[in-house]
Amino acid sequence: MRGMENKERPPSARERRKAQQQEDDARLKAGLTPAQLATLHTMEQFRWTLRFVRRPMFLQPVAVLFNRDDSRYAVLEADGSINESPDFKIRT
Fold it and tell me: Nearest 5°: CA angle at 29, between 35 and 12?
């Protein structure tokens, strides 16, 4: 493999997916309050994941978490509390 020493190898598909996931995670977390981020970190230890964030105009972002098997969801309130009975339904 002469000449390859100076060239970088292209990223593998797995590396590209991981980089994309990290960018997506950063976008989802952008704009969350410090309290929400702290609670999210704790919930991630229990394998809950931030799936999406609703951003209604002129209101605080509404972060929605799902448990590891997607059987339950909860809203991460602006003050960092968890609301397991939000006033909206999620389509499945």
Answer: 145
